[in-house]
Amino acid sequence: MFAGGCLRSRTLTSERSGIVSKDSLDDLSSLVGQDVTPGQRSAALERSVQWRSIRLYFRANTWIALLVGLLLLLSAAPNEPLHGLVPPAIAGSLSLLGLLSMWKLPGRSGRAMMMLMLILAMGLAVSIAVSRQLGLHAISMAALGMLVALGTSFLGLRNGLILMAVGLLALAGLSGAELSGTLIVDHSQRGLVSLLIGHSVLLALGLGLGLGSLRMVKRSVMEATERNSRFRDLLSMAADWYWEMDREYRFTHVSEDKPGASGLDLQGRIGKAPWEIESLGLSVEEMDAHRADLESHRPFHGMVARRLGTDGDARYVSVSGEPRFDAQGNFRGYWGVGRDVTHEVQAERAVHATETRYRELFRRSPSPLVLHRWGRVLDANPAAMAMFGYTQRSSMIGQDLFSHYEPGDDERGRQRTAKIEAMAVGAMLPMAEFRLRTLSRRARLVTATSVRVDATSGPATLSFFIDQTEASRAQDALRRSEGLLSHLEPPAPM
Known about the structure:
494 residues, alpha+beta, Beta-Lactamase, 3 domains, six-stranded antiparallel sheet
């Protein structure tokens, strides 16, 4: 849902080809699914990490170059060429470039600017070796390998090879100047060869170190992309769309599984706060409560809104969100998910309507009905209350139903209950006759049957009673009358 090209998404900020925008903190943390392949997402994340690394280099270069320039200026000797001002000038230029790069440099020019600054830093190392007449003995020449490592890890193998070539040319130039006498340095030719080999090895080590760092970054980015994809897949199972807000509670990202899943126009939401959007589906009171939650940076869960879909039918959505904070605890906005719960709401309402009809039928039924579990009364209708002699429904609930059965019949009733308790919902027992005693100890003769039902608190037994007391009395009276009549009949003639 969030992991493939089937997604339709809109964002307030967009990621351009090449380097992402400078203010890309949200880009890394966002889980919004773009219409790109996993490979494209991995490349975008790699560019974002690369841009952050480049900006870190710019900041570090600004202060380090400024400090080095001041030290070189203070330690310049009068016998140096141009009074030793060339190295401090190069260091000052490096510091100024770093400062300008952090201030105004477009993201797409970051790689080129870093490459220029690395080459200029190599030039600074060579200028110190020449100005101080140290040649290959200058400590600054050891920095060439570190610069190659930085360039390779930040800018890739191709740029690392270019920097290594520049370093080798610098070593060759210094060696040639020393051998020709152009640069007078107090050392032997054998020492020069050893230094040249040593510095070349350092350049190669720098290239290898940078290449290893570059591979580690690529592997980490790939693992992060895989984790992100797995999380998107899990998120897609639990939500129909994903959204984000900024610090001003304005929507910045919204993505849907399919158009119209959220019941609102995506483009119409971007850049707006919830209370600025028409037909969001919340009442005035609900919106006030929601705004209070947002402004208090409180999480919210299962907020249900009623909206009209594109087909004009009512649609119910459930929205949840959590506040976002950075590492320093500063509020960054909100992110959350939404689900279409229309079918759930409709099913819940259908169940409620069914339960309402059941309750009404249960209450109005002329037949005594008792809902119980293992003989413990859960509910009874007015007809059952009247038959058992109860005036209050609450008085009958919780009573042992079989305590009203005559001895012998109570055990038979419990056995029937044990039998139906083991049956599935919908099972039914045949009719059986029982002798009862009401609350006032009046005798009753009833026939009863039971059916297994699914009650609110779980499966239970619903027993139907037919009061046969009056019919039994009528039959007894009829039999007595027939007996009397048999005695009054004249004898048959002999």
